[in-house]
Amino acid sequence: MTITTTSELGETIRNRRTSLGLRQQDLALAANVGVRFIVDIENGKETSQVGLVLRLLQALGIRLTAEMSPVPAARSASEESETFDPDNFTPS
Predict the structure, then answer these.
(1) What residue spans carry the region label Disordered (predicted)?
(2) Are 41 and 53 in contact (CB under 8 A)?
(3) In this structure, are residues 56 and 22 in contact, taking their beta carbons and an 8 Å threshold?
(4) For residues 62 and 44, what is the distance between their CA atoms, to the nearest angstrom?
(5) Fewer CB within 10 Å: N-end or C-end of the chain?
């Protein structure tokens, strides 16, 4: 499953919580966070603290993994010479 938005993360957390038969209060106690935090994250609030989100995922048994996109191709020497140099800039 790929999660790309806070709304998708919130939906994933809500689905897992309900599938485990937990109330928001139960999860808040298990993750040592406030109920308001559970409500906010499940509603996709973008300003939620990452550390608390990770604690919440751990309490739900959700493992977060990073998948890296391919690295862009290296630039050639001729492209490197075209790099903007602010010390040698001459406006047209």
Answers:
(1) 69-92
(2) yes
(3) no
(4) 17
(5) C
